[in-house]
Specification:
Length: 113
């Protein structure tokens, strides 16, 4: 099954690690999004402790790489930004977590000690 994941993409360094997810706030964003259908910008800000401008930069980088989708919706007379994980984002996150688990279990990415 082709998930749309390209191992040579900028979202993967070839060992399962995503350079985009090595920033703690970005990893928090994607981890939270992996458990929900979508999340509002303010919720992500609260979870990560990022300012508006820093959160915007993180989301722009993730969106440019195709890991998250952004949509604007009006609510209570205000425009709100909602963020969701894309299929590529899910695959990239899962590969990143698997590479971390390999290390934590005493192996290296690829399973060779």
């Amino acid at each position: 099954m082709n998930s749309g994941f390209d191992p040579g993409s900028p979202a993967d360094d070839g060992g399962g690690f995503s350079p985009l997810l090595q920033a703690p706030a970005r990893l928090q964003i994607v981890a939270l999004l992996s458990h929900v259908q979508d999340a509002e910008f303010t919720r992500l800000k609260d979870v990560t402790g990022c300012s508006d401008s820093v959160m915007s930069k993180h989301l722009a980088a993730l969106a440019e790489a195709g890991l998250v989708g952004l949509r604007k919706a009006a609510s209570a007379g205000r425009s709100r930004t909602w963020v969701s994980l894309t299929r590529l984002g899910r695959t990239t996150f899962d590969a990143h977590v698997a590479a971390l688990r390999d290390i934590l279990s005493g192996g290296e990415p690829g399973g060779v000690i």
